[in-house]
Prior knowledge:
The structure is a homodimer of 252-residue chains.
Chain A: E1 4-9, H1 20-27, E2 31-34, H2 43-46, E3 51-54, H3 66-78, E4 82-87, H4 97-106, E5 111-114, H5 119-126, E6 139-144, H6 151-159, E7 163-167, H7 173-182, E8 190-195, E9 203-208, H8 209-214, E10 225-229, H9 239-251
Parallel strand pairs in A: 1-4, 1-5, 2-3, 2-4, 6-7
Antiparallel strand pairs in A: 7-10, 8-9, 8-10
Helix pairs in contact in A: 3-4, 6-7
Amino acid sequence: TTGTVTLVGGGPGRTDLLTLAGQAALADADVVLFDRLGPQESLADLAPGARLIDVGKAPGHHPIPQPEIEAMLIEHARAGAHVVRLKGGDPFVFGRGSEEVRACARAGVPVTVVPGVSSAIAVPGAAGIPVTHRGLSRSLTIVSGHVPFEPQEYAHLHGVGGTLVILMGVNTLIQVCTGLLRAGMPPDVPLALVERGFLPGQRTTVTTVAEVVRRGGMQHATSPAVVVIGAVVALAESSVWEDLARTVEGAA
Amino acid sequence: TTGTVTLVGGGPGRTDLLTLAGQAALADADVVLFDRLGPQESLADLAPGARLIDVGKAPGHHPIPQPEIEAMLIEHARAGAHVVRLKGGDPFVFGRGSEEVRACARAGVPVTVVPGVSSAIAVPGAAGIPVTHRGLSRSLTIVSGHVPFEPQEYAHLHGVGGTLVILMGVNTLIQVCTGLLRAGMPPDVPLALVERGFLPGQRTTVTTVAEVVRRGGMQHATSPAVVVIGAVVALAESSVWEDLARTVEGAA
Lengths: 252, 252
């Protein structure tokens, strides 16, 4: 009999930010396909009966092509396995989860999705930055920065007027900040880069959109990193939020 | 000695979408302030040692004013309690969590935040709608619909060109759809209303932005509901996704 595929949103990477449903799926798994974005450290404990397969795309290493990952999911499920595809954050936020679900469904393999804590929301919070704050930000726009945008897109990204969160945005950060400034964003709009959110070595750098361009980017930024642009970033600079950031860090 | 306040993102309402960290905070709680948006059903089991205080704002009932909730958090913590403020979704997505954190920090009460699964992302997924899909949507904008927008805001919300998710958007849905159409959104852009996501009686209605206006809104829509506008909604209509939606529903 055919097995199943369960896409599990693993959250930003700290084990205790996994959901109970995600934990249950891993406990029951025969095979787990994981990558560098989900919780990895305690994976052997979380999925004691599973074969663990690293399909990660570490920068500089040869990635497993997406169609091959999808073929692996289907192949193991057809062999009768409970397969968990463990992903960072939420499976439907730039994780290609939608493609994996469609591939399974088309192949007749039962597939379910366990949502996860999105790094786009949680990682700014770990740095003391609330993505929305009454009176400061009424919207949150989450984008992938893997390629830069068109001029008209910058106008709207700025025009929406709320908080802008960029995932996978380190490599294109100069272009994106330049585009936003050309679209009329004031140069002193605060920008935060949060590296390794919720993980050992978490680091927050607060600057401005113009300063990023002037300095030629954020040197030495390490992946994974989340970029936050907007008035809410200023809350992280107040002493209240510095205390909070320390507390949150201490709890991690 | 002063206690602590922990804001816990409870996710969309199904108990198993709580995080392990959220579960641990509840297990350790002396006092839990909850409302109608978080997981309620098994709260007595999750927090067996806690006094449970409903600060919910059920429609039509007298809500507890926000400053009073903040005063309660501080008062119980000062009395030495481990206080959990259990919120629906993630505490920093339109939950006034940021205000509660600031109130505690200003009062000198140690406060930490446990992020949660945001309904803005997870509830569309429960209906088979991925908020991003390669080639269809490169951005996700999350807004609160509690009051309508200005004309210029609609232009940008439409112009960003990705997926638009509206929380608390049932009451203003006609105005918002009218505003988006006036800003140039094509009338046939698909719109989904997902009621009671992940809860018994989950229901998805798929229509178009123009149809909402023509019909004078979505009658009989029940809160909580999440509105999704954009090309990704069409994925929910394909048979592949109908199967998925059934599977996901069956798992719930």
